[in-house]
């Protein structure tokens, strides 16, 4: 569904994203993880066609800069940005027009999403009068209204209340079941636990590790947070290491996963750097 | 276009509904409409006594040329702006990621700049009655003027679209076009200064200069004027050339904007969000040049503690600008000083007294300065909580907080008075006393602005604050005019050489008034409501 091949974004001499490749199939939920400045948001913006890039990005075989490609993309930005002098309802109307959707069906779908995210009382309010969390909810609904085949979410849970996080997780899971490919970039790893299928750990504009949930065993399959820290902390400080994630078929060397292995990880980190 | 139109009209509708709640806006609209209607009525009813300047066509043509040139500069300047001038964050999140065509999005962005053309059109509309009345222009000539004007506006809108889409993809062109604009402007200004220097009558000299047929060679504005004059003089071949050039450039603008493929999206996004860390770093590297220049430490001798830290922060920001405090307003003031100096020199040749010229120059400079003081940033700063949290006296905080506008004014005053003094050959002491008065007038305006914000509350329009501050300062200036005349004449009687002390006394008056305003507005920093 989403094919990213050799995606490179360079600002003058500096690489923001370097040769990033990954695929996301129908109904898969992929998670982009990484420290600040790793290039997660840049990847999403390149996929959206907001930034010019080298490499290839295809959505359902279409270019993301074509009108057809854009019709099947949904995007939730990191910071909710709405038209201050338009009401929530008018935002939905705008999306209906911009994506040339069926007004009646879209109205029904919007009403359902508004109910689920508890925005009923503010649909006729100006967006400037909404709290940040409410704006984020409106932003999410706007992204979902065109019923995209690929949904890109940049820190979608930021500013949401616990109920909204729960509801959004549910909505995303339902969408994935309906065949929507979802790519989430987030720092709040706990919010995507249990719903991811692929995890991409980024650093310095590159994908360092790709994990598939169905390949993981034991505690590794259960905790994305554990995988993330195992991969990133061993890289950051070689003398303070967590064990590498175990995959199916891989021999476990030590019983206790929290035992440090400074020497091996140091080698690993040097290898990565050389690479 | 449907979606873009929806956003524009919905927002206009809500803005108008919002304005309905503010009678001051409608009073303003009424005044403008009444003003235009009055001029049209005057033109229609005073037919018999018309044509006072019918033999002085150069005045009409020179004035039109100035308007065309200004519009051209503004129109091209719009095309050179970064994406965040046309679009907002909401457009990036919703419009740029939608299937709406990039050309429509570009047009939507630039449509929001149409207000500029509406403003200039209003200027022209106000003068139509006068043109008919004073220059005895016939209906077809007025229609021709409007037609040429509309053609110029359409060309500029399309060209600014093209320029923007070109410079967003190839930023190097931004500098090339900007440089060309500077060169053309510099040539016109140098020519104007020389004309003023030689001319005995500054106003007619200026208008004759702009009426010169050589001016028609200037791109766009000049061509439009060439078209107007050629048709009036029935030289249709020449008119076709000028008209053709305008249409050609409009077409080029359209082609550039039509052919872009999302190239400008990146410019919008980056200028909106300042890009990601990598871009920011790389841009800083570019600014610093190939060699990484050492970062200058921002210490301000002895005034970086307590309330003064507020000023330090603003100074640190100013230091990062290419011209420190100075900006476009300063450039305008410097140009005005050159023109003023030339006019003063012309008056001097006619035997005008030196002290009168000093008063006129300083009054004109201070009056113009009121438009260029950028105290509006005060309101933006008030949104940040740190100013309320910094411990210390609120009056001191206000004084330091507004320091950059008047420090800029002092520097600007020194430059402007020096230019006027050199051109008009005034006393060197004028520079010193003139600068003091100029700076104090800026402080007074800042204080009056802060007092206006305090008096009207924080939720009023910036225009209203400025209007009130302007009214307050004008009232004080009027008082100072009578007071200064009394003191000045006494000093002049005593000795012509100490007459300039009058400016010092008036500067002290300004400072006292400023302190009173700052003191009365001190509560503005006590709560953040």
Question: Would you kindly provide a written description of the structure presented here, covering whatever features stand out?
Answer:
The complex is a heterodimer of chains A (275) and B (529). Chain A has 275 residues and is of the alpha/beta class. Chain A has a domain at 2-84 and 140-215: Rossmann fold (3-Layer(aba) Sandwich). Chain A is 36% helix and 22% strand. Chain A has nine helices and ten strands. A six-stranded mixed sheet of chain A has the order 6-7-8-3-9-10, with helices on both faces. A four-stranded antiparallel sheet of chain A has the order 2-1-4-5. In chain A, a hairpin with a 2-residue loop joins strand 1 and strand 2 (14-24). Chain A starts with a strand and ends with a helix. Mean pLDDT of chain A is 80; it is low at 235-243 and 251-275. The longest helix of chain B is centred in the last third of the chain and has 33 residues, at 462-494. Chain B contains 23 helices and no strands. Residues 275-298 of chain B have low confidence and may be disordered. The A-B interface holds A 11-16, 36-37, 39, 41-42, 45, 48-52, 65, 67-68, 70-71, 73, 75, 77, 79-86, 90-91, 93-95, 97-100, 126, 139, 142, 205 and B 2-3, 6-7, 10-11, 14-15, 18, 88-90, 92-101, 261-263, 265-266, 269, 275-279, 281-283, 285-286.
Q: Which features characterize this protein?
A:
heterodimer; A: 275 residues; alpha/beta; Rossmann fold; 6-stranded mixed beta sheet; 4-stranded antiparallel beta sheet; 10 strands; disordered C terminus; B: 529 residues; globular
Describe this structure in a few short sentences.
The complex is a heterodimer of chains A (275) and B (529). Chain A contains nine helices and ten strands.
């Amino acid at each position: 569904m989403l094919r990213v091949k050799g995606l490179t974004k360079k600002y003058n001499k500096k690489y923001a994203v370097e040769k990033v490749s990954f695929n996301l199939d129908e109904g898969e939920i992929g998670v982009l993880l990484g420290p600040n400045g790793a290039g997660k948001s840049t990847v999403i913006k390149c996929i959206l066609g907001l930034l010019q890039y080298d490499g290839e990005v295809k959505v359902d075989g279409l270019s993301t800069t074509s009108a057809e490609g854009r019709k099947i993309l949904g995007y939730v930005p990191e910071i909710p940005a709405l038209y201050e002098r338009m009401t929530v309802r008018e935002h939905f109307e705008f999306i209906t027009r911009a994506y040339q959707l069926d007004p009646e069906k879209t109205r029904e779908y919007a009403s359902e999403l508004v109910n689920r995210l508890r925005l009923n009382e503010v649909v006729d309010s100006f967006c400037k009068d909404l709290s940040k969390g409410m704006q984020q909810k409106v932003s999410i609904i706007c992204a979902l209204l065109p019923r995209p085949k690929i949904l890109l979410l940049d820190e979608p849970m930021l500013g949401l209340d616990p109920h909204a996080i729960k509801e959004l997780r549910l909505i995303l899971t339902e969408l994935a079941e309906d065949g929507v490919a979802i790519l989430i970039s987030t720092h709040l790893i706990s919010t995507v636990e249990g719903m991811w299928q692929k995890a991409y750990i980024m650093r310095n504009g590159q994908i360092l590790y790709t994990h598939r949930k169905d390949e993981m065993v034991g505690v590794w399959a259960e905790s994305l947070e554990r995988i993330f820290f195992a991969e990133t902390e061993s890289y950051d400080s070689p003398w303070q290491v967590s064990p590498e994630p175990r995959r199916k078929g891989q021999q476990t060397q030590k019983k206790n996963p929290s035992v440090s292995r400074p020497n091996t990880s140091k080698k690993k980190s040097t290898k990565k750097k050389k690479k | 276009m449907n979606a873009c139109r929806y956003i524009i009209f919905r927002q206009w509708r809500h803005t108008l509904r919002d304005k309905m709640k503010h009678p001051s806006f409608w009073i303003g609209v009424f005044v403008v409409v009444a003003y235009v209607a009055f001029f049209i009525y005057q033109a229609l009813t005073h037919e018999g006594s018309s044509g006072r300047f019918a033999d002085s066509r150069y005045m009409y043509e020179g004035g039109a040329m100035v308007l065309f040139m200004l519009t051209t500069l503004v129109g091209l300047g719009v095309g050179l702006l970064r994406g965040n001038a046309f679009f907002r964050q909401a457009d990036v999140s919703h419009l740029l990621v939608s299937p709406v065509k990039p050309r429509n999005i570009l047009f939507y962005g630039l449509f929001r700049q149409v207000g500029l053309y509406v403003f200039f059109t209003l200027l022209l509309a106000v003068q139509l009655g006068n043109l008919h009345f004073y220059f005895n222009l016939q209906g077809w000539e007025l229609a021709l003027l409007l037609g040429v004007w509309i053609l110029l506006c359409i060309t500029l809108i399309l060209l600014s679209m093209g320029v923007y889409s070109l410079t967003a993809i190839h930023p190097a062109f931004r500098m090339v076009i900007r440089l060309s604009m500077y060169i053309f402007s510099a040539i016109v200004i140098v020519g104007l200064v020389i004309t003023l220097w030689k001319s005995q009558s500054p106003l007619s000299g200026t208008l004759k200069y702009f009426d010169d047929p050589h001016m028609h060679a200037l791109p766009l504005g000049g061509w439009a004027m060439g078209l107007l004059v050629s048709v009036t003089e029935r030289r249709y071949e020449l008119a076709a050339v000028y008209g053709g050039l305008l249409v050609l450039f409009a077409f080029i603008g359209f082609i550039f904007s039509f052919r872009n493929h999302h190239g400008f999206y990146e410019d919008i996004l980056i200028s909106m969000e300042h890009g990601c860390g990598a871009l920011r770093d790389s841009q800083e590297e570019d600014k610093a040049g190939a060699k990484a220049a050492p970062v200058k430490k921002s210490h301000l001798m002895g005034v970086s503690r307590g309330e003064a830290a507020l000023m330090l922060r603003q100074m640190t920001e100013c230091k990062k600008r290419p011209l420190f405090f100075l900006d476009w307003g300063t450039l305008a003031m410097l140009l005005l000083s050159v023109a003023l100096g030339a006019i003063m020199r012309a008056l001097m040749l006619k035997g005008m007294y030196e002290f009168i010229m000093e008063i006129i120059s300083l009054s004109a400079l201070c009056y113009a300065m009121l438009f260029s003081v950028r105290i509006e940033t005060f309101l933006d700063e008030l949104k940040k909580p740190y100013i309320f949290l910094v411990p210390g006296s609120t009056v001191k905080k206000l004084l330091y907080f507004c320091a950059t506008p008047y420090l800029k004014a002092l520097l600007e005053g020194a430059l402007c008075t020096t230019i006027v003094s050199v051109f008009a050959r005034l006393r060197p002491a004028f520079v010193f006393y003139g600068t003091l008065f100029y700076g104090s007038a800026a402080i007074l305006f800042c204080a009056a602005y802060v007092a206006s914000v305090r008096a009207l509350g924080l939720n009023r329009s910036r225009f209203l604050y400025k209007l009130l501050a302007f009214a307050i300062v004008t009232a004080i200036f009027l008082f100072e005019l009578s007071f200064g005349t009394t003191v000045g004449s006494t000093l002049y009687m005593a000795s012509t050489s100490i007459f300039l002390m009058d400016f010092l006394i008036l500067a002290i008056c300004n400072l006292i008034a400023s302190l009173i305003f700052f003191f009365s507005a001190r509560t503005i920093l006590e709560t953040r409501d």
